[in-house]
Amino acid sequence: MASPTRAPVLALKDVRLADGAKPLFDGVDLALEPRIRACLVGRNGAGKSTLLKILANQGVEPDSGERSAQPGAKIVYVSQEPDIAGDTLLDYCTAGGAEDYEAHATLADFGLDYAKSTQGLSGGERRRAALARAFAEQPDVLLLDEPTNHLDIFAIQTLEEELAGSKCAALIVSHDRAFLNRVTQRTFWLEHRKVRRLDKGFAEFEIWSEQVLAAEADEERRLNKQLEKENAWLARGVQGRRARNEGRRRALMDLRSQKKDLQSDKRGSMTMAVESSGTSGKRVVEAKHVTKKFGERVIVEDFSTRILRGDRVALVGPNGAGKTTLVRMLLGEIPIDAGDIKLGTNLEISYVDQNRMALSEKMTLWDFLTPGGGDSILVRGIPKHVAGYAKEFLFTEAQLRQPVTSLSGGERNRLLLARALASPTNLMVLDEPTNDLDMDTLDLLEELLADFEGTLILVSHDRDFIDRLATSTIAMNGHGKVLETPGGWTDLIDQNPDFFKGARGAAGDFATGTGSNKAVLTPPPAPAPKKTVKLSYKDQRRLEECEALVAASPRIIADIEARLADPGFYARDPNGFNKVMKDLDKARADLATAEEDWLALEEKRETMVS
Known about the structure:
This protein folds into four domains: 10-200, Rossmann fold (3-Layer(aba) Sandwich); 207-265; 276-348 and 426-499, P-loop containing nucleotide triphosphate hydrolases (Rossmann fold, 3-Layer(aba) Sandwich), CATH 3.40.50.300; 537-609, Orthogonal Bundle (Helix Hairpins). 41% of the residues lie in helices and 21% in strands. The strands form six sheets. The protein has a six-stranded mixed beta sheet with strand order 5-6-7-3-8-9, with helices on both faces. It has a six-stranded mixed beta sheet with strand order 14-17-18-12-19-20, sandwiched between helices. Strands 2-1-4 form a three-stranded antiparallel beta sheet, with no helix packed on it. Strand 6, helix 5 and strand 7 form a beta-alpha-beta unit. Helix 3 (100-109) packs across helix 4, helix 7 (205-235) runs antiparallel to helix 8 and helix 17 packs antiparallel against helix 19. The radius of gyration is 29 Å and the shape is globular.
């Protein structure tokens, strides 16, 4: 970890900002030193994305306070919804100033074809393209807002490797615990309109935050007792002692103000519950020797499984491998080519779709929660006013008449869950339910699903969420091979370390057993650079550049020094003399950098060979 005495490359000092009458930040301090990898965590609506935009200088100005950055520092921001423009992915990746060879290399690292059109990209492809461009630009600071959303596990692992191999500082907003555990060295917690700092990675956050909250609870109890005492004093009257006790009365007003702030800052309490619609048959789904193809593409070949009442089954694999297709086959929604699938009896199915297809752009929240009209919704058999039910999922009454397009990603996911959980169910199917949810909501959803008496089928790329919930995991490699093992993601990889070698997703052969997949199969205790048998394309190109520069620089420097040796040069052309002096400084600096990089890359290559 960088020394705390190093000057920050990017910082905020006493930043304050209000959204209308609602204060967002009340004296935020935050600093990133070179190469520090930090996360910014906090509940939905706390202002994490807004804070990133202030840091990135992306159209949000604080009401007061200072933003400072080292002169010349390149700061790259990847938003939650990146805009991918240009004719090809290569055009997009080089639009910010990256060299062609850097863009080629990072696109290849993320499994993308540089010649692919930017039109018609999936959510995962757009995310990978934005990340590839960010790393190709070789930033000094990288600001990432929910970078793992829509990525499969292999692309997430590639992102981990790129961060480990980069020289940049990074600040990451993410809900993915496994990802943050691997890549972070520092944790910033946005809570009560301020940012708290922990000089440890996210793995230590939960214990630390519980200690902080416990201390705050003690402080609130002390404040309550003091308020009771002072209110009793005030009730006895101060008129006869006004001159003597006005100070005490002002102190009481300050205490009341503190109490009001504490109450207004209390996190919203979301009520999430699900009720089983009654017991299904013991057998929920039974599949025997199932095969499915689309043209020449094999999705599933000779797969069998039995899902029993109460099972919690996770599906994993590269994007495009066919996980959603397999779920719909198991539910009888898509015909199979061969084999047999039988559904159990008394099934009441609730389905939350990863693409949020149920959300029409023209709908308001009210319309979505009451598809039959009216002002009430049947919640587990009991009529409930729509405003009251929406409040349980942290929606205000004012939001109910707004279009769903006005909602953030996390709010849309909460809205889908609100409607799905209103109806009794005994088979819940959740397709990427963790996207955009904050960690508090994830914890609540996890508790709900763990206590759910029915059966759960879960499609997810959240390794931590799967490990905490799944009783078994079905893995798909994209070539038709499907494997089921007891336990979660970690159990799957421990028992079948080679299963994903040569795996295929929508982007083609992405998880090939080297690069991203290698780190997934043998998870390191801490982030580490990729281990390969030869230098990457990017490193090899840089090594060749350094060799050429080291060879050519002495002659270039000698020529410049010869020009400066002319005793009349400065008198004839002072501006020209100063320019040549700058050229000499640059040539010497370039040589020093090339020598350092050459030595580092040669050591890296020797380590690989040994």
